Amino acid sequence: MTDVKIGESWKTPLSAEFSSPYMADLKKFLLEQKQEGRRIFPRGVEYFRALDLTPLDEVRVVILGQDPYHGEGQAHGLCFSVQPGVRIPPSLVNIYKEMQTDLGIAPVRHGFLEHWAKQGVLLLNSVLTVEMGRAASHQGRGWERFTDAVIRAVNEQEKPVVFILWGSYAQKKAAFVDRSRHLVLRSAHPSPLSAHNGFLGSKPFSQANAFLEEHGREPIDWQLPATPE
């Protein structure tokens, strides 16, 4: 998968992953799926969009998702984010609600989160591809191993980072993060099924910024532009 776009800062830390047999198997699987006429989201050039937009040495916050959206035109390589013009997904609606409660930021009318990614918010899904209309269809194919390596690379950075882990899946995946150096914020998932069980009212955005400022790092401007950048 060295033919797809990925940020330069990640290439050396992840070189062993890209040259490993499991990654070759994953690439073969994806090519076969496409040859069979299956539609894969996001587009190939966007598989590593999160890494392309957020250089390793600039990561300040990590938000972990699970799977890309599997609907037409939604996924573009950033967890919880959708392309301009696409209806805002329910989990992101709740994220916006919590931002308003936490920081007084009124929700915007789009779900395009590149503004966060360009500031150092790594919006990383555990699995980076999915077949259209088939949720979780690419789980267990190797992506989880690759994204574990991404999280390890961030964990090894000297600068303190905030890990925002929504739901048990994200919390288990990043359980090894060094809490003596980094801040780990855990709560329920923003999904409508669980948001009222501890996500709403958890104030992750203000907590993240307070930690960054305390450690001499710039806070995140969570206010999204009114129209997608």
Automatic annotation (TrEMBL):
<dbReference type="InterPro" id="IPR005122">
    <property type="entry name" value="Uracil-DNA_glycosylase-like"/>
</dbReference>
<feature type="domain" description="Uracil-DNA glycosylase-like">
    <location>
        <begin position="52"/>
        <end position="212"/>
    </location>
</feature>
<keyword id="KW-0378">Hydrolase</keyword>
<keyword id="KW-0227">DNA damage</keyword>
<dbReference type="InterPro" id="IPR002043">
    <property type="entry name" value="UDG_fam1"/>
</dbReference>
<keyword id="KW-0234">DNA repair</keyword>
<keyword id="KW-0326">Glycosidase</keyword>
<comment type="function">
    <text>Excises uracil residues from the DNA which can arise as a result of misincorporation of dUMP residues by DNA polymerase or due to deamination of cytosine.</text>
</comment>
<protein>
    <recommendedName>
        <fullName>Uracil-DNA glycosylase</fullName>
        <ecNumber>3.2.2.27</ecNumber>
    </recommendedName>
</protein>
<keyword id="KW-0963">Cytoplasm</keyword>
<dbReference type="InterPro" id="IPR036895">
    <property type="entry name" value="Uracil-DNA_glycosylase-like_sf"/>
</dbReference>
<dbReference type="Pfam" id="PF03167">
    <property type="entry name" value="UDG"/>
</dbReference>
<dbReference type="GO" id="GO:0004844">
    <property type="term" value="F:uracil DNA N-glycosylase activity"/>
</dbReference>
<comment type="similarity">
    <text>Belongs to the uracil-DNA glycosylase (UDG) superfamily. UNG family.</text>
</comment>
<dbReference type="InterPro" id="IPR018085">
    <property type="entry name" value="Ura-DNA_Glyclase_AS"/>
</dbReference>
<feature type="active site" description="Proton acceptor">
    <location>
        <position position="67"/>
    </location>
</feature>
